[in-house]
Write a structure and sequence with these properties.
By secondary structure, the chain is mainly α. The chain has helices at about 1-30, 40-55, 60-85, 90-125, 130-145, 150-160, 190-195, 200-225, 230-235, 245-255, 260-290, 295-320, 320-340, 350-380, 385-405, 410-440, 440-445.
Length: about 450
Amino acid sequence: MDHYLKNIIVVSFGFLLLFTAFGGLQSLQSSLNADEGLGVASLSIIYGALIISSVFIPSIVIKKIGCKWTIVASMCCYITYSIGNFYASWYTLIPTSMILGFGGAPLWAAKCTYLTVSGNRYAEKAGKVGKDIVNQYFGLFFLIFQSSGVWGNLISSLIFGQTPTSGYNASTSSYDHCGANDCPYLNITNETTTTTQPAKSLIYTLLGVYTGSGLLAVALISIFLDNIDLKRENEKDGSEEEPFWKKILATIRHLRDKRQCLLIPLTMFSGFEQGFLAGDYTKSYVTCTLGIHFVGYVMICFAATDAVCSLLFGKLSQYTGRVFLFYFAAVTNVACIITMLLWRPHPDQLAVFFVLPALWGMADAVWQTQTNALYGVLFDDHKEAAFANYRLWESLGFVIAYGYSTFLCVSVKLYILLAVLIVSMVLYECVELIELKKTPQTDMQSDNNGSLYKQTHV
């Protein structure tokens, strides 16, 4: 039985190594490749390709080469993006962004399939409940995986911290055009970020570490992970894999459920708010005021809070119900948005730079865990179509957030976030009212915070 646990640990640490690189690189794109918005454009391309990939690619690739080699091949797609950043240009980052996006959906689908099949097989041999073992495996996976946000950002801050500066953004004496006042057409922040760019040698060192981390992930999975035969599972179920066109039709037909339509803004908001923090807060608040070497430390604060609160709220929801948590997250985000609109960032206010992403991470923990749980509870009979819609609309939120990042002032983006959040909560309340009329309240408050947490993330 030990080899099942061994495989889960191998998968978990493989993802840890891979996303230590990608997570750290994603946080830096808006600052590191700020010229003409190249960095955020590449992120937008990634999530655009992910939308297409989610619909067409995973089932075909997994069926052809199996879960293990799908994970390996998809990880190689991520490594191309790290390599593309060595010579960052529209001719290197855009193609590698597309490659990464197309590899993202098969990676997560193969991981979910592998953990689910492994859990069910162990439970069958050990005489235990399959669902309980699967949830334990996913819990172990995310316990290890979520720390990647800490390590990736810590590496970038330690390396970029070797740049000789006075501790903050020493190239400017005025921070009036940082924060909500940052506008693309002013070009003032762009000048700031270019003059405070780390030395090329430090950038190459960081990219070398990230690329090496990705290669280690590929080696770990290739050498130590056992393959599993999915044909056995299909034979046991007496079913065959549906053609992908049927899945597409099921995803589209699912939109006939008015509850799904009402949840679209809430699902997209998840992409909007994460895109704003990674693409705009890091550049217009942190890099503009403190320097790029602070980005990693700030994002560590976000990642750590997000991970801890994800576990905490998963337990707390049993006592408070999901409605309370959704409104708690909404109020937290509104408070942060208003603060960002009114605040004029300055290096002397160092604590504020960390408090805001910590609060943002607290709210994000609710959006991720509870929205996944909500989909699982509401659409229990059509889970696959429901989560396909989840991946679609959240990815579209990322695409839009990164897409308009280089064209709009930060203040406008914050107002957009506020508007989308308000609309999302109004429509979400409509969903709860529909459920209240259909089912007893005790059923409505039941939660399913298990294995699907953040599976849509690239």
